[in-house]
Amino acid sequence: MDSLSAISEELAEIDGQIADIFRALSNGFQKLEKIKDPSRQSRQLEELTEKMRECKRLIKDFDREVKEVENRNSPDSNRMLNDKKQSMIKELNSYVALKKQYASNLENNKRVDLFDGPGGEEENVLLASSMSNQQLIDRGNEMLDETDQSIERSKQVVQQTINVGAETAAALKEQTEQMSRIVNELDSIHFSIKKASQLVKEIGRQVATDKCIMALLFLIVIGVIAIIIVKLVNPHNKNIQDIPGLAPPAPARKLLWDQN
């Protein structure tokens, strides 16, 4: 630890954490040997596995820190650090192998004997070697019946799943058709709005034209009224003599024999 502190405080701290985990793993496996309950053994193995994962992460941090300070160290220091890392990996692998061994033993203990019955410990003690042929046949028939029932339940579950899938597919198809109809209706509405907009523009142009015509007629009527007023006020005005209906009547022509 002191030599690591002289090289890097970070390396010394990581080394201390790894050493603490190794002590915890050693104590944990010793405790595991005394546990007889399979469920407690399983929980203890899970805790030890979590500690081994943490140790693996710390070893990676240790290796990364070693590479960062490698250029500043002497060859002897680098060799010492590499040996330290290899020692950590070797010790961790030994605990991993021990964990696999315990896990395998625990799995073997959990296996149920082929001829174990559901009636309790007294039936579990009954082994195949102590059974008669008829008992073996009866037990085999019971297991076949249980297997058939399990298969039948599985078929029912599969059929229910198929039915739910078919209903879901039908619902999706109906929704897709409904969405397609909505899209078509939206296209129709858009087309109608476009036609209505064009019609409004045409009506607007016609109204503008009609307004121009009405304005022109209004001006003509105003002009005629003005001329009539002027004629009434000044009937001898020569400028409006030639306007039809406003000029004074022409003098009566005298015949030649009337003069004679």
From TrEMBL:
Query: Known Pfam families for this protein?
Result: Sec20
From the UniProt record, list the coiled-coil ranges.
45-72
Q: Where are the transmembrane segments?
A: 213-233
Keyword Transferase appears in the UniProt entry: no
The listed locations are:
Membrane
List the InterPro entries hit by this protein, alphabetically: NPSN/SNAP25-like_N_SNARE, Sec20_C, T_SNARE_dom
Molecular function as annotated in GO = SNAP receptor activity; SNARE binding
Task: Give GO cellular component annotations, separated by semicolons.
Answer: endoplasmic reticulum membrane; ER to Golgi transport vesicle membrane; Golgi apparatus; late endosome membrane; SNARE complex
Entry keyword set = Coiled coil, Membrane, Protein transport, Transmembrane, Transmembrane helix, Transport
GO terms under biological process = protein transport; vesicle fusion
Membrane topology per the record? Single-pass type IV membrane protein
Family label: Belongs to the novel plant SNARE family.
Protein name (Swiss-Prot/TrEMBL): t-SNARE coiled-coil homology domain-containing protein
Q: What is the lineage of its organism?
A: Eukaryota, Viridiplantae, Streptophyta, Embryophyta, Tracheophyta
